[in-house]
Amino acid sequence: MYTKQPKKMLIFNILDILKKYTDEKHSLSQNDILNILEKEYGMKVNRKSIKRNIMDLIEYGYDINYREVERKDNEPMLTDFYMNREFADEELRILIDSLLFSKYIPYNQCRKLVEKLEGLSNKYFAYKIRHITNLPENLPDNKELFYTISVLDEAIANKKKVVFHYNEYGTDKKLHIRTRKDGKPAEYVVNPYQMVATNGRYYLICNYDKYDNVSNYRIDRITDVRLTEDKVKPQKNVKGLEKGLDLPKHMAEHIYMFSGESATVVFRADKKIISAIIDWFGKDISFFDEDENEVTVSVYVNLDAMKYWIMQYSCYVKVLGPQSLVDTVKADMEEIYNKYNKAES
Fold first, then answer.
1. What predicted TM-score, i.e. pTM, was given to this entire model?
2. Is the pLDDT of residue 35 over 70?
3. Where are the alpha helices (DSSP H) in the chain?
């Protein structure tokens, strides 16, 4: 048996029905709404009450569509009610996919966010995405993530330094705080400038207070963050940020978000991977000396990151300069060869 609801709840129940059951492809007649009210809410009302309350909702600012149908008595009847959604299902799908394929949001928090996004649509949307999931074992363990983001947001907005512990995984597959040589937890005092998401990870672009260069820290590895009263170091005093943070340029230079020196790198590449080159470095690159199969590429990039990129695409590229990078790649290739050669012998 339903508990009889007061009449003042009628308008809220009608709104709930429109949110739950309607969109541009799914509308309800007045009779449909009457039946749902009786079946799911235990309310018996007449059609005039439905029309009056929907008109009130529209007057209050709710974006509700309907169609007028002429009747024999010349009084139009309203039908085919549905709510226009702030987010289209396709937009919600993109947002949910971004959450599910992120590598920095803990599983339980990710599921709660997905449920909130599902709630912005109707029951038909939940049916569409029931087969989408992510793997809990592939997601981070840091339960402080959202708190950390909140503190960093406040620090960046108020130009304050922060202090935190930084973590790394051990062979037990758990996060452990980095320690100093004496075994005590290492504290990082940093000047935060920007948070960015790239490669499925969330990073803090900042300056480690001891030095004068740019650092990038994984936010899901940060714990015990504290806001200080100390003002941040001006960006003009940080090497690479003298003219401020050019975010697109910074992201193109730091493809793996490594810190350290950037320089112009020239390499010869198989034209099969031109799309991959643009995906990684953007369009602020130069192509020249092109022939049928290969092209020479020039890009300004972080050298440590470039070394790893070259190893990833080693079958398709040959680094030409700077010489220091050529020597490093050669040494790494020889070490790899020796490891496999030793294993076979």
1. 0.60
2. yes
3. 10-21, 30-41, 47-59, 89-100, 107-118, 123-128, 145-158, 247-253, 274-281, 303-312, 323-344
